[in-house]
Amino acid sequence: MPSIELKEGQKAPDFTLMNQDGTPVSLSDYRGKEVLVYFYPQDDTPGCTKEACSLRDSWSDLSGLGVDVLGISPDDAKSHQKFREKYDLPFQLLSDPDKAVMRTYGAWGEKNMYGKIVQGVIRSSFLVDAHGNLKKIWKRVKTETHGADVVKIARL
User: Fold this and answer.
1) What confidence tens digit (pLDDT) does each residue in 107-130 have?
2) Which CATH class is domain 16-154?
3) Domain ranges (residues) in the chain
4) Which residues are tagged catalytic?
5) Which end of the chain is more exposed for a tag (fewer CB within 10 A), N or C?
6) pLDDT, tens digit, for every residue of 37-75?
7) Inter-residue contact 71 to 19 (CB < 8 Å)
8) With 0-12 CB in 10 A as exposed, 13-18 as middle and 19+ as buried, what is 26?
């Protein structure tokens, strides 16, 4: 899957990845409802935990608006299971070990980490509408408020 510059309003690229239980999950499974697809670097690290907990804390608002959440990182199913259990995360976490989906969404590439250019996960999120189109793209995510930020857009 080649990396392209995704734009709001266009069709979200479909994918199928394994969840924390080893079950395949496809974006197309969510047609008919909105879904937030968020990419994060690693389970149980400070920024990723803040972001996941922000989404968890906004879960009642998100689910009330008909929005589901899929978190994607390179971590394996066992790591995802531990992360979900430790922080009581109500949404699925998907594994993208070869980073193919991340590349497709522009969520893998060069980034500046402490003044050094490295290859890695670019924290970003994509709100996909009920028709499978990109409703909102966050290229920069505020980890502590991301859940509330998504709720604001989902209400529109």
Assistant:
1) 998 887 788 888 999 999 999 999
2) alpha beta
3) 16-154
4) 48
5) C
6) 999 999 999 999 999 999 999 999 999 999 999 999 999
7) no
8) exposed
